[in-house]
Amino acid sequence: MALKSIKTILVLVFSAILLSASHKVMAQGNEAKSAEEAGNEQKEGFNAKEVIFGHIMDAHEFHFLEFKGSDGQKHPVSIPLPVILYSPQKGISVFMSSAFEHGEKEVNGYKINEEGKIVATEEGIKVYDFSLTRNVVQMLLALSLLVWLMISVAKTYATGKGVSSAPTGKQNMVEVLVSFVRDEVCKPNLGHKSTQYLPYMLTVFFFILINSLVGLIPGTANVTGNIAFTIVLGLISFVVILASSNGHYWGHIFNPPGVPGFVKPILILVEFLSVFIKPFALIIRLFANMVAGHIIIICLISLIFIFAQINPAIGWGATIFSVAFTIFIYFIEILVIFLQAFIFTVLTAVFVGQAFEGEHPKDDQIHEDAIII
Prior knowledge:
This protein is mainly alpha-helical. 65% of the residues lie in helices and 9% in strands.
């Protein structure tokens, strides 16, 4: 009975909040409409779209927050990054992104447009941007962290620790992941060539994993949620797949065995397109999953400010639910990161294994391979 009463009270409170919010929104909509008709400009409030896209898109700085100073102006807290531009007409220009003052000023005939890209203020000026954006800087930092981690673990093994005794600390964590990729990804899908492809599979797995985990730190960039990042990884896997292919692989594509002649033209087209669809699937899957998680988290946080604009009391009430759901999604996102790193790696291994696969082994040979693995 007590639980039922609590549920009833919560439903009533939530319904009251929604009714109050909808009434307030309608009132504000009518006021905005009348103000627009009168020709008066109104001050813009919280822009959720700008915040969301500002987080998932690339930028020339690490932006953390904004605060209103004693002068009544907003002062952003950010870390500027180097801007490197080349123009055939104007030559090379190098300066810090802080010189733009967050898009308010022009520097050396360049400005930041609404999309966050650097363009020339004069017409006919071609600009090539080689700047170190936050995605590039963060990827380099994540790569440095990965190299340090692997070298540190290798040095620990060189001293004899973890060889005759159980590994500890980061050595234990890395060994578990390495063993998992070797035993669950490479051996089942690459067979006798698993050792040959193991370094590449480990590099892909850890590179995606480290970049994704670093991207969960507040204020950092969502590198693995950038389509350019996933395209490069997909193209590298595509090259590895093609380099691993043999005549048997291409024979099955352009001359499928055991297929009626009138069906072959359709099947050949499908099989040929699948060669390009495979890396495309890798690219889109990683990109979509990593972007979706970050958008959900930012949307939940944005609800606090959206409701606060309607009524401060509603904003404080929404904070409890938004923070609770954000923490829940945050932990789910950690699980998704490991899953996506695993899925990208295992699918790459499957596609590579299909590329060098020869004649289908007999049942006794399959049994022997299973025993060896």
